[in-house]
Amino acid sequence: MIGELAHRFRDAMATFPSGVTIMTTADRAGRPWGFTASSFCSLSLDPPLVLVCLAKSAMCHPAFQQSDDWTIQIIAAHHLDLATRFATRGGDKFAGGEFGSDERGVPGLSDAPVRLTCSAHARYDGGDHSILVARVRDVALRDEHPLLYFRRTFHPLAHLDQDVPV
Questions:
Q1: Where in the sequence is the domain holding 39, given as residue range(s)?
Q2: Closest to 39 measured CA to CA, from 66, 10, 78
Q3: Is the peptide bond before 165 cis (omega within 30 degrees of 0)?
Q4: Residue 116 backbone dihedrals phi, psi, to 5 degrees
Q5: Which tens digits make up the pLDDT trace of 112-125?
Q6: 164 to each of 134, 145, 160, 161, how far by Cα in Å?
Q7: By CB neighbour count within 10 A (0-12 exposed, 13-18 middle, 19+ buried), where does 84 fall?
Q8: What are the beta bridge partners of residue 23?
Q9: Is residue 2 part of a domain?
Q10: Averaged pLDDT, 136-157
Q11: Mean pLDDT on 143-149
């Protein structure tokens, strides 16, 4: 049972906006797996590392523990249905045909604003989550705004005026 502090902590963390990613892999049998994550951040420039947190209760957790080949997609507003599908337990997340497989057999979303081709660098215990540290091997960029997650809801990023300093 989740206590009062855990509820307040979850509410507090929901006020921190973050980008939305879909992380994908394939298991030893070649079956694709993936999940939506907002717990994602840059970790190191040299070597290029990022981290993503995955709930240990997720059905895809064993696949990410076994596989060392991962792809992380930072997704756009037009991927809202994908974000919801990959955040929902059960069902065939890849049924829509939006993903292709790379030379490693890992599903990738070609029209994502950012696609990071990664290999496993480290895995750490993080309470009810595993902390997956990925070494970035390649980067694909598109000129498109990412989807944001704020107060437990997805939001498109409003147009940014680059000429106005903050």
A1: 19-147
A2: 10
A3: no
A4: -110, 120
A5: 999 999 999 999 99
A6: 34, 17, 9, 6
A7: exposed
A8: 35, 72
A9: no
A10: 84
A11: 82
